[in-house]
Amino acid sequence: MAAAPNVGGSLLGLAAARQTALVDNHKVLYAASGPNQADIMRRIISAETGGDYPRLKQGRLTEHEQQVAQQLVQAPLLIDDGSDLTAEAIAETAPYVQDLALVVVDRLQTAHNARLPLSGDRLPSASQVLAGLARALDVPVLAIVDSDDPTLLRLMDADVLVTLAPTGDPAKVQVTVAERDFGAIDSAYLRPDLLHARFLDAGVAPVGRTGGEGPAPSLGYAVERELAEAALPYTSGAQQGLPASVTHVLAALRTALANGDPESLTDLGPSLAEAAAVPPQLPDTAEGRRLAAALQAYSSAASAGTTEQPAVAAVQTAADSAQVPDAVDEGDDGDGLVAGDEEDEPEGHVFPALKILKDAVARSKMHPIPVIRTEERDSAPWTLISEDMDGEPRWVHPDVTLTRVPYIKANGKRVRRDKLDVPGSFGEGVLCLIDRNGSFPSACSAVPLAPNKLLHTGPLDAFDKTKAGIYLIDIPQWHRTDMPHPLGRMIERPDEDGRVWVTTPHLKQLEKLVREGHLGAAPTIHDSWTGKANESLFKPFYEATRKARTELVQIGGESYKAYKTRLSIALRLLWPKRPDQKSPFWRPDWRMSMVAEASVRHWSVAFRAVQDGHKLIALRNVDAAVFWTPPGTPPATYRIGTGFGEVKAKFVQRGEIIPEGDD
């Protein structure tokens, strides 16, 4: 089974093991070279229950998940995760497993790793040993390899080759089955669900409807299917909190879709519409937000009688923003850049941010490479970098309930705003809103990054302070409930091995937390792309920005607005998203390192406040925090002011909305 990293080869191999051991009740030998036994067990629990893998990795299981874990102990699944696991050792062990039905080898790693015998140039010989095992025992041996390189796969000489390949649609992976002598036999599409360590069906043609008038027949199969998928954590019992009547109707929806039963779908229409019209209050978790969005999209489609394709868009829009379609947020769309932004500011501009940033890079004695060539951008390491690496917390205290409520601005615009419901057990107090000044330009004062090319440095025994870049690490366990995980939202999107790519600022933060005793051990670095480190590349830009802010914040008006606009554009131009957007830069690693540095500073200051005894209610993006404090008393760990490194503090009474922007 061949798949490039992060495509999901291990998850499909695990699905075969789950089916064989848990459904068919046949014995499976799972040879884990890379993931350990605990990783495998967590993935199975996540896939079987729909529970979030990152949460399970933190050791937090629901009652239902604990029951599944107990059942796994009794399952005919033997996991061998020995450090000296070789193909020969697997071949010697397997004959002693009575009634063996399947051997899974997870995985053969193409990059050499001294700690893993099943890696590097030993793979072809290992494949021959495993093929001999399959023939000797007359059992299938499923070996997962983390590459789809045709040259390597020919050397492996497998009887059957299953290849997973990404498509233009991130929600689909193509799976092709080929036989050694006859070539490709067939292919299919699957939908990756990495949050739950599994693949799902990519979808089938819409079920034809018969009979009945009204909105239900026109809702579109996509809306109903999304609602059923979003409800799965609740209908499966992994999550609690839905009224029994709603749980029943959503479970019936899933059954009707699975059975292709159009009559049942039609009969369920009124009950679904009623449940969606008055949705239950859901927690601010990934599962809760998705189900809330799906219910609102269904309600909107039902009332509007929209066709299937707009319904798909409604689901996507609502799922992305967790709000109803008639109320919008004022956020950025894409990278927020337009044609002409890449041009230098005219002479006499109040703040020529782009000129200053270009000059700062050009002055470096390290001869930076500001633009990666176009032909290199579709390969590693650039394809490994994503916006998720910002590490923004987007966290709410587990005892506090966040809801999105309608709000009408002074200009009459209908929007949605957050409301935080604080329990009475927190005592008397008010919401103290902390707004950090200039988070991104402040971070530019010392961003650890590699000005030159990133080279593939592979697994590392330890973090090298002289290097910077991106690193593939395990998600460290974080047991505190009064602070979000140090990696923020990154933990919500691990790969199939429960690992994430991080930039240098977050890796340095984890190392510091280990030194201070807040983490048990530094994370293992499984892969890396690094270059010589530098922390002063953007420092001239930071100094010019700070000086200009000191002057312009007093003036205000259009001058200050122009300053902020050009500042934002300059930093966004470090990584323009659209291919047709011109820019003097194309360095995703620079951009994400800068944003990550801002997130790390934001988290660290909030953590100091919590250590001093303050109650953190929410830690939002890179510049907003909410504390529960006595009226007019912000945490002393923050400095109030208008300069960089300082914050603005506002106070909101219990039950009021959290204002945004110019509210």
Automatic annotation (TrEMBL):
It comes from the Bacteria. Residues 1-144 form the SF4 helicase domain. InterPro entries: DNA_helicase_DnaB-like_C (IPR007694), P-loop_NTPase (IPR027417). Residues 327-345 have a biased composition (Acidic residues). Pfam families: DnaB_C. Residues 319-345 are annotated as: Disordered. GO terms for cellular component: cytosol. GO terms for molecular function: ATP binding; DNA helicase activity. GO terms for biological process: DNA replication. This is SF4 helicase domain-containing protein. The lineage of its organism: Bacteria, Bacillati, Actinomycetota, Actinomycetes, Kitasatosporales.
